[in-house]
Amino acid sequence: MGVGADEELAGDRSLEELEERLGSDDVVLVDALNDQIEGIIENAPDLRVDYVVGDASDVFVSSGGHLHFDVVHEGSSIHCVVFAFRLDGLEADLEDGLQIAVRGDLSYHEDEGQVSILGEDVLTLGEGLYERTYQQNREALAEDGLLDDDVKRELPAFPERIGIVTSAESDAREDAVTSIHGRYPDVDIVVHNAAMQGTTAMESMMAAISALDDDARIDVIVLTRGGGADKHLRVFNETPLCRVAANTQTPITAAVGHENDRSLVDEVADRRVMTPTHVGEIVPEKAELEEDLQTQAERFDGAYRRTATLSLREHDQALTTAYSDHVTSRLDTHENELENAFKSTSKERLLELEANLDHAYDTVEQQAAFEQEKAAVTESYEQKQRRRQAIILALVALIAMLLAYIVLT
Looking at the chain, which terminus has fewer C-beta neighbours within 10 angstroms, N or C? Predict the structure, then answer.
């Protein structure tokens, strides 16, 4: 039927007109059908039982003070309501996971087309079947070491491509993608569509995780869905799914449910974030990185200038010290060489002077001896001359006396 026909059928038409248009005399509007269903359900004797037994799930008190919960068994559930005026008479303190027995009348809510139990009394029978199953699954995973912190892998600090396993048309997909790109727009995202609840959910998610794990371009896998009824989240406690998530070669993050929801797949994952809107926590904040980079660049520039200045000062001081030490060393060396040369030269000079002095002394002594000898010779000669002169004078006087004698005689 075309869109135009849908629009016409949606109009305010009489039942006769609808029967004529549809070619059938067995046509009923929704409200009339729900009235019939209500009458059948609430008046059928076979549907009247003393107690309905199952596990309590999604227990909460509405803003009107009414107690709401689901009774779940083997994948089937029925919603229960205990009105506020009956709560004081209940002995049971309801918690998710307890096995309970509910007594009350069946009621069909026409607006939503939903069957509920209007509870009159609730009895607790102990630990629920699913809670026991959950604990058994957890123990099995723990025995295999899949819950140990030391097997958790570090997520890459800067993933380039992230694979997301979720329903492609869900709010969880949009929230996760928006969260990631809100922090780091440059990250590539690959969304692998999978059923997140229902009979095919586990196999669908396992296949999606494996497909992304086989893609070498994927740096991180994210398994995510929004919150929901506890019965719809139980698939995330199944051991086959947990083992596939735990044994991926690619680091995996779980973001299943809301803040208070926690599943076994959360515990085996390398990292858990509370909701799809928190998935962005696995990537850095680009704006913060850029701001930090700018700050680090400024610090590096300042540190470089300080280091360069300090290094130049140290090198200048080291060069000055080395030059001073070198000059001092060379001066000491030259001083020692000069002193040694002076001593050597002085010694040679002194020896030479001493030799000259000795020679001069010998010469002086020889000269003195010569002078003495000369003086002695001169004195002897002068004495001889004086004696000779004396003799001559004596002879002259004698001759004179002889002459005078001769003359006189």
Answer: C
